[in-house]
């Protein structure tokens, strides 16, 4: 009986096993190195501020912030103007400042956009 063939197959599978083990060790070493590098980078960053060190809003409120009501800037249809608009004729914003700047208030007994507007469980 010729065992040379079986010995060659066994040697090949042993080599494959060694390659898998060495590859696994290389991957594990790379992961350990990456974790160590991440820890070093984290230590170089400034620490997060504690509770009393966070910046606070000034008494006058947010700086450089405006509140305004906007309404959609409708694009005219081709049937109305007689021609199609080109991209440079469109504005950069899809809305414009509304003429009525008063804040909308819900009517008493109205639920806004939710439900049927009934009394809601009363």
TrEMBL record:
Keyword presence, Ribonucleoprotein: no
Biased composition (Basic and acidic residues): 42-53, 66-87, 96-108
InterPro entries assigned: DUF6479
TM helices/strands, residue ranges: 12-37
Region Disordered, residue ranges: 42-122
The organism's place on the tree of life at top rank: Bacteria
UniProt feature, compositional bias: Gly residues: 112-122
Keywords: Membrane, Transmembrane, Transmembrane helix
Name under which the protein is recorded: DUF6479 family protein
């Amino acid at each position: 009986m010729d065992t040379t063939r079986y010995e060659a197959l066994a040697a090949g599978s042993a080599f494959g096993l060694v390659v898998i083990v060495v590859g696994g060790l290389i991957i594990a070493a790379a992961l350990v190195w990456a974790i160590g590098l991440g820890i070093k980078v984290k230590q170089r960053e400034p620490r997060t501020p504690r509770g009393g060190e966070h910046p606070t809003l000034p008494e006058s409120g947010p700086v450089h912030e405006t509140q305004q009501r906007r309404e959609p800037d409708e694009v005219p249809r081709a049937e109305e103007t007689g021609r199609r608009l080109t991209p440079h004729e469109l504005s950069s914003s899809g809305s414009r400042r509304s003429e009525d700047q008063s804040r909308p208030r819900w009517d008493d007994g109205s639920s806004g956009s939710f439900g049927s507007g009934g009394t809601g469980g009363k």
